[in-house]
Amino acid sequence: MKKTILLLTTLCVFAFTVKAQDEDSGLKISGSVDTYYKYDFSGEPNIETSFANEQNSVSIGMIDIALEQTVGKASFVGEIAFGPRNAGSAGPGASVMEPHIQNLYVSYAFSDLLTLSAGYMGTFVGYEVISPTGNFNYSTSRLFTNGPFQNAGIKADFTISDRFAFMVGLFDDWNVYQDFNGVSDFGAQIYVAPVEGWDVYLNFITGYHTQAFYTDLAGSVTEFDITTGYQITDAFYLGLNFATASAEFEDDSEDGFTGLALYPQYAISDAVAIGLRYENFSWKDAQSYNSFTLSVPISSGPLTFIPEFRLDTSDEDVFEDSDLAATGSASQVSLAAIYAF
Amino acid sequence: MNAKACVSLHGPLSTCNMLKMNVITLLLYLFVHVQPSFSQEIELPVDESGRYTYHEVVDVKNFDSVTLLNNAENFLKGYINKKQKKTLHRDDLKGEVTAMSSFQVFKKGSLGKNVDGAIEYSLRIEVKDQKYRYTLTDFYFQEYERNRYGKFEPINGKVKPLETPSSKLNDWQWNDHKKTVQEKMTVLVSQMKVDMMKIKSGDKKKVKVKEDW
Questions:
Q1: ipTM of this complex prediction, to 2 decimal places
Q2: Tens of pLDDT along A183-211?
Q3: Cβ-based contacts of A299 with chain B (< 8 Å)
Q4: Does domain A33-340 have CATH number 2.40.160.10?
Q5: DSSP string across A218-260
Q6: Where are the domains of chain A?
Q7: What is the pTM of this model?
Q8: Which of A23, A24, A28, A38 to mutate to test the interface with B (most CBs of B within 10 A)?
């Protein structure tokens, strides 16, 4: 019996090895490290969006390591990160030194039309992402901060053509490895490319969460999101993100937000670009914000410096000035260095 | 200015903050202006209009145009991948076979083979009796990026001609892509020259007759 199992195992390993030599089985290793200096002109950290909040300090973001392999129709991605930026994406109470999974999933392409993926994946909702290499600006928007970061689940991607695709999936609560109230979210995405260079994503996610909307209350959460970007000329790109989200908690209270962000960006050369992010963001029945972020990424191969200036204003005095008095605006400068490998 | 003094100052116009800004400005200046040169400039062949083009007339005695056209078609069928097959076009009247092809180029110095983009280009083989000529041109760089799911994919609309000059800061990476083009085209041309003579004019399928039938 033991011999039979050994033989079968040997045959299996041998068969796989022979097959693998015929196909593109290259294991890709990629990732990034980032560090930054930030100074809020009030002398206190004031702008509360995700990551890079440490005041007047040369601080670190995270080290992010991703493995990816595709063999035939099967593929996997495993991405793990360490550091404050990673902890910020893991939610309140996460340790800075604790690793956190950014992506961990397997996919199988049944055909050019259909791919099934299961595991823990970067969210399909929104414009900005956790990895600093995926964003133009170093600081993040409120739309990003208050939407999902990751969605664990199973999804089916249907690629009808280069110009049209859609996805449907069942997901856990936002940003968790395990769903204690069962797989309760339904998500869908429609992708359209009306002309070359223009991507439009319509995203929808709804479900019942044990900790809805980053609170300790259970409730149902729904978010609708439009993320689009158009490379209008070789140098000029315009991005847009609109989202509206609502939560109905089990104690019958409600919350929600609506926001719009614009991302005009101009490439001065292949090494230097300049871009503005304008965001208008409103909490349901509470304060609203206008935010202007001017970034000038300068890159040489894998290394990018991002000098950035940001001004946030609110209709309520939610910030502090240098005398610690409540005020309606806050501004900061930062310089980030990001190395992608 | 000692460290303690820096900590105690908060105002935006303090001397300490000015000093920090100056250090940041200096670092940025050094980053932009002090760049080592990593590799030799790669010169690819250009045509009259300045486009990178590989072009050559090859004499092949004892090959008629039909045989050469068949060989050209067979070569391109074997060379381009499954998705590019629809770009393969044979024109018997003009005596030419054309196709589009591409290959990935990688980030220089990356740990794994991380895709920086793809080079797309066109291939044309024209034939006459006793000779053929090939033209490899229209080289474009399609930029890739790692998406939110950790996979490298093309960015819609980020395509530029390979002739586009790169900035000083990214010259070494751009030059590396041109070096890859040079190497790939050299291999392609030698393979083409072998395959264009694979089946000779007048070659017929040989039928094996078994003795013990």
A1: 0.85
A2: 989 999 999 999 999 999 999 999 999 88
A3: 169-170
A4: yes
A5: -EEEEEEEEEEEEE-SSSEEEEEEEEEEEEEETTS-EEEEEEE
A6: 33-340
A7: 0.83
A8: A28
